[in-house]
Design a protein that fits this description.
A hairpin with an 8-residue loop joins β2 and β3. Helix content is 41%, strand content 23%. The strands form three sheets. It has a five-stranded mixed beta sheet with strand order 5-6-1-7-8. The protein has 14 helices and twelve strands. α4 packs antiparallel against α5 and α10 runs antiparallel to α11. The structure holds 2'-deoxycytidine-5'-triphosphate and magnesium ion. The site of magnesium ion has 5 residues, from β1.
Length: 369
């Protein structure tokens, strides 16, 4: 590779939890498998096998809805210990091929393989080899994306799932990006997408057309980054080690709210998502922080510590409610709510080693460097 150009791979296992269940229970192969909470207990779907996805079932959907869409589905509880062990196997394969591996969650990572190849075609051959090793060692399939930057490599891995392999060469990036819906751009969540769609902006071509200045006016610094992505520029390095100090989730509300009940409902949703991540990582955290941004943009946080650690949403909720009522005396309108658990503790030290390399599953997650 010439100096200016990089070769980045993004690898992402297909229907990760569900594929592991089908692997370990041959009788479930070829069937609609849904891993997650039970439909009878107001659970949500963690993931669904590709057979179930044909019925419209997807991650984060209430399990009851999933059951209605796909009545024959087999519902299974998650086995996080097994998923974590498989994750270690695949991360070890990745690390055999590059020192620059950045895990994004249990089942996906970026690899910078610039030093190992001369061209993106060679990088694609390497990706095929990695996919083969994953199959040989775990009997699971992964999808690979290959490009000259992170953002495009990730989009490429998603393009032909499952068991896909997609290269987006430098020359093809502009055409690809022009047609790309705004929701697919890194960092564009629901609120940003709605804002842009209101202005008639639907695709990468529209973003580019709008121009850097307008995007800056609309979205601040994030708008500038978005403009650069629309131009196919993403210089973000693959960062091998990010020490996780906290697990958090926050949401910018579509409309400012004053209603305490509504705030509590949102806090519950956030706490459930934080719980999911803590359970997935097998950890608890000593400190629970409530983050509130008032409609005036003023930011306040309140924290409470407990010696045995927070993990379950049900344990976080009373504490969050009481911290909220301490803040909310003036009944001011709120624009953002966040729940963060920090002071992370794991049951054993081998777990701690894993924490170092298992960062964010959510793009807008609160991660302290
Ligand atoms: N997960 C979850 N809840 C979500 C999203 C994901 O519990 N809202 C879990 C279950 C997934 C795993 O994380 O198996 C990996 O997430 P992915 O987004 O990579 O989804 P999958 O691997 O299941 O499917 P895909 O083939 O689309 O990658
Ligand atoms: Mg996956």
């Amino acid at each position: 590779m010439n100096k200016a150009s990089r070769a980045i791979l993004h690898l992402d296992l297909d229907a990760f939890y569900a594929s592991i269940e089908q692997r370990d229970h041959p009788e479930y192969r070829g069937k609609s498998v849904i891993v997650g909470g039970s439909p009878d207990r107001r659970g949500v779907v963690a993931t669904a096998s590709y057979e179930a996805r044909k019925y419209g079932v997807h991650s984060a959907m209430p399990s009851r809805t999933a059951q209605r869409l796909c009545p024959d589905a087999i519902f299974l509880p998650a086995r996080f210990e097994v998923y974590r062990a498989v994750s270690q196997q695949i991360m070890a394969i990745f690390r055999n091929h590059s020192a620059l591996v950045e895990p994004l969650s249990l089942d996906e990572a970026y690899l910078d393989v610039t030093n190992a190849v001369h061209t993106l075609e060679e990088a694609a051959r390497l990706a095929r080899e990695i996919k083969r090793q994953i199959w040989d060692q775990t009997q699971l399939t992964a999808s690979a994306g290959i490009s000259y930057c992170k953002f495009l490599a990730k989009i490429a891995s998603d393009a032909h799932k499952p068991d896909g392999l997609t290269v987006i060469p430098y020359e093809e990036a502009p055409v690809f990006l022009e047609a790309l819906p705004i929701e697919k751009f890194f960092g564009v969540g629901k609120v940003t997408a709605a804002k842009l769609r209101d202005l008639g902006i639907q695709t990468g071509a529209d973003l580019k057309h709008l121009g850097e200045e307008r995007l800056h006016d609309l979205l601040g610094k994030h708008g500038e980054q978005l403009y650069r992505f629309a131009c196919g520029e993403d210089g973000r390095p693959v960062e091998p080690v990010r020490e996780r100090k906290s697990v958090g989730k926050e949401v910018t509300l579509e409309h400012d709210i004053r209603d305490r009940g509504e705030m509590e409902r949102i806090l519950e949703q956030l706490a459930v998502q934080v719980e999911r991540r803590l359970v997935e990582l097998g950890i608890t955290g000593k400190t629970l922080t409530l983050k509130v941004r008032w409609s005036t943009f003023e930011l306040v946080t309140r924290a409470t510590s407990c010696a045995w650690g927070f993990q379950l949403a049900q344990e976080m909720l009373p504490v969050l409610r009481s911290m909220l009522s301490g803040l909310d005396e003036d009944k001011r309108a709120v624009r953002l709510l966040g729940v963060i658990v920090s002071g992370l503790i794991s049951p054993d030290e081998t777990h701690r080693a894993r924490l170092v390399v298992t960062p964010s599953l959510w793009q807008d997650e609160h991660v302290e460097a």
